[in-house]
Amino acid sequence: MFVDEAKIRIASGAGGNGCMAFRREKFVPRGGPSGGDGGRGGDVIMEASERHNTLVHFRFNPEYKAQRGRHGEGSNRTGPEGKSIVLKVPVGTIVYNDETGELVHDFSKPNESIVVAKGGRGGRGNQNFATPTHQAPREHEPGWPAQEFRLRLELKLLADVGLVGYPNAGKSTLISRISAARPKIADYPFTTLQPNLGVVALGEMPDVVSYVVADIPGLIEGASDGAGLGTQFLRHIERTRCLVHLVDCSDASGRPDPVKDFDVILRELSRFGAGLERKPMIVVASKVDTAISSKVEKLRKHARKLGLEFYEISAVTGAGVSELAWAMARYVEEVRRRTDDGEGVAGSVLIDAEPETKTNKQKKGRIKPMAATKKVATKKAAAKKPAVKKAAAKKTAVKAVKAVKKVAKKAAVKKVAAKKVVAKKPAAKKAVAKKAAKATK
Question: What's this model's pTM, rounded to 2 decimal places?
Answer without folding.
Answer: 0.58
